[in-house]
Amino acid sequence: MMQHDFDELIDRKGTDCKKWDTYKDDVMPLWIADTDFKCPQPVIDAMLERVQHGVYGYPMNVKTFEQSIVNWQKKRFNWDVEVDWVEYTPAVIPAIVYAMRAFTNPGDNIVIQMPAYHPFHDIIPNNGRHILGNQLIRKDDGSYAIDFENLEELLSKKRTTMFLLCSPHNPVGKCFTREELSRISELCLKHNVFVVSDEIHSDIIYKGNRHIPFGSLSQAAADNCVVCVNPSKTFNIAGVRTGAVVIPNRHNHDRFYAPLEDNKAYGRTIFGTLPIEVAYNECDYYADQMLEYLEGNLAYLKKFVAERIPQIKIGNPQATYLIWLDCRELQLSPKELHAFFLEKAKVAMNEGSTFGPGGAGFMRMNIACPRSRLEEALTRIEAAVNS
Ligand SMILES: Cc1ncc(COP(=O)(O)O)c(C=O)c1O
Predict the structure, then answer these.
(1) What is the value of pTM for the model shown?
(2) Segment 321-348 mean pLDDT
(3) Is the domain of 96 the same as that of 237?
């Protein structure tokens, strides 16, 4: 089997790279959600071959892109998706916006779970809809539970028409259980609330947990959802700007897709679809090896912090390479916390309050990097905390 070297140090500076080119040279960037790993060799080879062809005219849609998503959902999550349920989208965030416009009206309420991935805070009001926040409850072991009573209260409000689920959850790293997802589905059906499930992080699930696609829960759940996927996190191809939706119900599919078709807003790119097809069809080995590597990084982080920076708590990460650090013991305001890590420790992370209620006092660390970089960042943080 092909082996990928996740220890390889790749210089990303000067490549118009948001993660590395935003901050000064002496800062270790562990913030925005892409990895520092080279993408799988079969993807690179296929792209090179296509580049060498030299003609990049209009592609024909022969459904190989859709089929690769069907294949991946079956192999990895045992979900039987049909090719006709899948549509190409330019990325996940645009897909969520399309769904919001198709299934809700201006002035409606959309429920999200707080703290929430920061663009959710923008796209909902930017489209004239209101955010209702269902606060996730932090337990003593650092894992998170759903406040179902509050959730039902929000879902039952007259103008609540959509629940935007982030499964698994960024930034708290929660992997939802089948029981939790089923209960969410039942409540949404009871109150006639449509579900958009953002499953972009679904390949990075730590041992003892399992990702369940929302649309695989039951026929009723499938008939009431749009599932958003993108291999960009797993295979480090966010820059090709591609994603997909899976919409099992034909009526919902048409409602989502008609405005795109009417506006001819469905064009795809050959360099967007090709890497996804190759990654999903040929690169299971890479996803498996990266997960193993990330398990190693997580174990390293947990040990380092427990032994050398006990003021910071790791909690109980179940999914994603974005680790939610509890820094409340440092007793710094969000602004001070951000400045402390960036200016004193020289490590760039996402400051927790930017994710909304429940985020103050936390920092989000991206551990998808070679271990030597993680080690360097933690050593810097240790020195800053001790000084
Ligand atoms: C939960 C979540 N959704 C969506 C995105 C962005 O996806 P895309 O680049 O496909 O719009 C991210 C990126 O970090 C994310 O964490």
Answers:
(1) 0.98
(2) 98
(3) yes
